[in-house]
Design a protein that fits this description.
With about 120 residues, this protein is of the alpha+beta class. It has helices spanning about 10-15, 40-50, 60-65, 70-80, 100-115, and strands at about 5-10, 20-30, 30-35, 55, 85-90, 95-100. A three-stranded antiparallel beta sheet has the order 1-3-2. Helix 2 (about 40-50) packs across helix 3 and helix 2 (about 40-50) packs across helix 4 (about 70-80).
Length: about 120
């Protein structure tokens, strides 16, 4: 059985994927502290959700995702890149991350469930 984890979830993501939220606690700016289930899936969805509108730099995506541990963020980001959910491109001094069609499909499967 999966253990519930306490994490910060961006408000938009928490509202969109309520199935993953067991209990909401305090709201801090644009995130909610919440006890969640299926933590790894939710972490992937956080990344995909924020890229669905616009490509982002590494630091912007890290900030928006609310994944507080940089090593965990890197692990989820690399997983998304390795499975071709996200593409990365070097543009000058920045690395820009973009959601792929496969990433959109994955995100949409979970968004349909919550609608």
């Amino acid at each position: 059985m999966m253990k519930a984890r306490l994490t910060y979830v961006p408000l938009e993501v928490a509202d969109q994927f309520e199935d993953f939220i067991i209990e909401r606690e305090e709201q801090i700016l644009d995130a909610v502290k919440a006890r969640t289930k299926d933590f790894s899936t939710l972490s992937l969805l956080k990344l995909l959700y924020h890229l669905k509108g616009n490509p982002m730099t590494f630091s912007h995506l890290y900030s928006k995702s609310k994944i507080r541990m940089k090593k965990s963020f890197l692990n989820y980001l690399h997983l998304c890149v390795n499975y071709n959910f996200i593409e990365k491109e070097t543009v000058g001094p920045n690395v820009i991350y973009t959601i792929t069609d496969k990433g959109r499909m994955m995100l949409n499967l979970f968004m349909q469930k919550s609608n």
